[in-house]
Specification:
The complex is a heterodimer of chains A (about 280) and B (about 120).
Chain A: E1 2-6, E2 9-14, H1 18-27, E3 32-33, E4 38-45, E5 53-55, H2 66-84, E6 89-98, E7 101-106, H3 113-122, E8 126-129, E9 132-136, E10 141-142, E11 150-152, H4 161-165, E12 169-171, E13 184-194, E14 201-204, H5 207-217, E15 218-220, H6 225-236, E16 241-246, H7 249-259, H8 266-271
Helix pairs in contact in A: 1-2, 3-7, 5-6
Chain B: H1 2-9, E1 13-16, E2 20-25, E3 28-33, E4 38-42, H2 44-51, H3 59-71, H4 76-96, E5 99-102
Antiparallel strand pairs in B: 1-5, 2-3, 3-4
Helix pairs in contact in B: 1-4, 3-4
Classes of the chains: A alpha+beta (about 280), B alpha+beta (about 120).
Amino acid sequence: MMYVAVGEDAIAVEAGEASIRAAIEQHFRHLLTPGSRRVLEELIADACAPDTVTARGEAPGLEPCPEAVVHQLEGRILLTLIRARRERLWLHAGGVARAGKALVIAAPSAHGKSTLVTTLVEQGWHYLSDEYVPLEIATGQVIPFPRTPWKRLDPGRELPLDRVLELRRVRVPVAPSAVARVPTPIGALLFPAYRHGAGAELRAHSPSSAALKLLSLAIHGPGTRPELLRALCGLLERLPCYELTFGDARQAADLLSAACAGWPTRVDEERGPRDGS
Amino acid sequence: MSDLVEQRTTDLYPSQLAGVWEQPVYDEVVLYCQDQNLGISLNRSAAAVWGLCDGSRTAAEICRQLARDLCGSPDEELAELLTPDVAQTLAELQQLGVLVYEAAPAKHPGGALQP
């Protein structure tokens, strides 16, 4: 039995097939815990489509297909965690941490989120997540969800979004020492946009527009939409927000590292982000 | 477009649509219209215009009030300068469906809801 844990919550996963077990271990490497904590659900990951992952007691499916199993398993795990912690905001976002604060990188798929996260981790930031960020809105704490990140291979040219989504992805290993293990207060919010060939440019982002973007990127949030919006606005009142355009991840990471060197406040943001060049 | 709107609406009173949620954030405002599932972000200038759309002022009176707020005293010249931007903001808000024009000033000026 394997236990995928986020904080105190765990999902027990049984996988009989060796290849599936290996794929789960690889994908959830930094989330696996040896013992059980508060086990929310027990899942069997044994087969490929149509029902790859079943809760204990349901009928199993067909031949094993590791990647599809892991994908479905992740979906089931997320659903279980969301149901167990309804007070949390779950964002489609990546996160990295440094000096006790988190940079949340919020964007839909294929906007350079994972590329940016993995590059920042290479530069010494700690890894929180590349795809899902659970956030305690009231306290502003980012809960780590350090699944093994994936990034798309650079095609070397500009592509329309649907083609970008089809690009092959590769796993990016993260050393255990580079993983953030504890909830981290959010220090800044970033909305990235990858543009092939563009120079890295960091600008202050409108807080009202940021609130709506976060709403659109919310996988789940507490309360009704207006209540969630109010909570997001409360969070944004004290949080610097930036938008980043970049074509080279290393250049962008350098700029971000410089901008977040002293973890700017909302007042600093008014004066504009620090020039990292 | 803004000239045409200005001619049509000169004697009318812009009013926030009932049921639109409003939440200030820093010096901006977020609007949310639940019926349309529509969110609108207003920068500082647009938020100032929106805040004066309580059905008690015409567009011209909104311009004069904004000029007063900026200068601390009446300033017709500034009000005149603000007119095109105010007209554009009002037109956009109306187009988005969160602003209506009333024929008469509101007896009890209302405001948007807060969540």
